[in-house]
Design brief:
Largest sheet: 3 strands, antiparallel
Shape: flat
């Protein structure tokens, strides 16, 4: 996982996400592998418009069968418990 932040002048939330993806891509390139982003999260860091972002990724060898279009899913924000027992 990589994380980044950006001031409003550097693009705020969108800039932070772009920087995090670029950092992740560089990490995989250093290993001579391909990047597969599995999740991204971004948020407003303050009222002035600064943003932060984190990217969850996998570095896979070129031609790896798992290197395909990922199925993005939002993280659950509700937990349902079965209390019938």
């Amino acid at each position: 996982m990589t994380s980044a932040s950006a001031s409003p002048v550097r693009g705020g939330t969108a800039g932070a996400e772009a920087r995090a993806v670029a950092e992740a891509d560089k990490l995989c390139a250093e290993q001579v592998k391909e990047i597969m982003v599995t999740n991204t999260q971004s948020s407003l860091a303050n009222a002035a418009g600064a943003g932060s972002a984190s990217v969850t990724l996998r570095c896979l060898a070129q031609g790896d069968r798992e290197l395909q279009r990922p199925d993005y899913r939002s993280a659950p924000n509700v937990i349902i418990q079965d209390a019938r027992k």
